[in-house]
């Protein structure tokens, strides 16, 4: 088709298979974008992604809906894609993804974005295909999927985690929209919790599922319980159940300065599969 000869263009329904093929080259790094595509993110009227084409073939693209996330990009595509990324500056809250790609795009576009609140350029991408029980790790039986009627128990834990991690609350005014996002994860069986004494003391979410891969996010342990050796058993159980319930390849990324979290993930069998970077506005 004539439109595919243009080096940069908006991606749509006809590009879904090619975009997913690009994501599948590195599913650990690209599961976030792949899951959004499978959820209809390239449907009619979408402006979520622009692709870089060479000889009529999709070689790379940038997802730029709320977050700027590069897929398969490199020096040859950063410059051509930069114009589209700059146009997204008013609706983008962050850049995130593989470090080299994020920093390459940032070099081309950063001058038009607000000054970052944080640049986290060393975030180990961790992954495993081995159930922790096979490695002899104890599984804490208290971890289970949250129930829909427990959404208001999960909300304070989710809010505390988000605020501590990002630096501001996840909502202003009414919590209705944020609560609904939590409700949807619970409905999909993608929030795991430990509830004791009528409150959540641990939680973890499966934020993305695609390409036989899933990404854990929002891991949180109540502050007064940290340092007691509970996290490894809880995480081992989350990984075990996630493999059984959602996908056999489990990933997450973590800040390099979070030494305790890194040790926990390594303890349950996760190993480094790459490096992410996140630039927060």
TrEMBL record:
Pfam families: Acetyltransf_1 (PF00583), DUF4081 (PF13312). Residues 141-281 form the N-acetyltransferase domain. The lineage of its organism: Bacteria, Bacillati, Actinomycetota, Actinomycetes, Micrococcales. GO terms for molecular function: acyltransferase activity, transferring groups other than amino-acyl groups. This is N-acetyltransferase domain-containing protein. Gene3D superfamilies: 3.40.630.30.
């Amino acid at each position: 088709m004539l439109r595919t000869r243009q080096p940069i263009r908006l991606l749509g329904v006809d590009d879904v298979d090619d975009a997913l093929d690009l994501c599948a080259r590195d599913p650990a790094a690209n599961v976030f974008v792949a899951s959004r595509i499978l959820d209809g993110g390239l449907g009619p009227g979408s402006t979520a992604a622009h692709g870089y084409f060479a000889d009529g073939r999709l070689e790379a693209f940038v997802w730029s809906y709320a977050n700027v996330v590069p897929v398969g990009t490199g020096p040859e595509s950063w410059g051509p894609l930069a114009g589209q990324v700059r146009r997204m500056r008013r609706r983008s809250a962050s850049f995130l993804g593989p470090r080299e790609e994020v920093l390459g795009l940032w070099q081309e576009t950063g001058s038009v974005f607000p000054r970052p609140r944080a640049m986290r350029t060393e975030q180990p991408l961790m992954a495993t295909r081995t159930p922790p029980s096979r490695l002899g790790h104890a599984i804490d039986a208290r971890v289970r999927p949250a129930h829909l009627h427990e959404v208001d128990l999960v909300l304070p834990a989710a809010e505390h985690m988000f605020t501590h991690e990002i630096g501001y609350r996840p909502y202003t005014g009414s919590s209705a929209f944020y609560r609904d996002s939590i409700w949807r994860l619970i409905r999909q069986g993608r929030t795991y919790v430990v509830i004791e004494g009528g409150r959540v003391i641990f939680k973890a979410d499966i934020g993305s599922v695609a390409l036989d891969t899933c990404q854990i996010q929002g891991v949180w342990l109540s502050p007064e319980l940290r340092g007691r050796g509970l996290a490894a058993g809880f995480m081992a159980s989350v990984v075990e159940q996630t493999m059984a319930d959602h996908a056999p390849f489990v990933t997450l990324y973590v800040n390099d300065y979070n030494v305790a979290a890194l040790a926990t993930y390594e303890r349950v069998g996760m190993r480094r599969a790459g490096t992410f970077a996140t630039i927060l506005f």
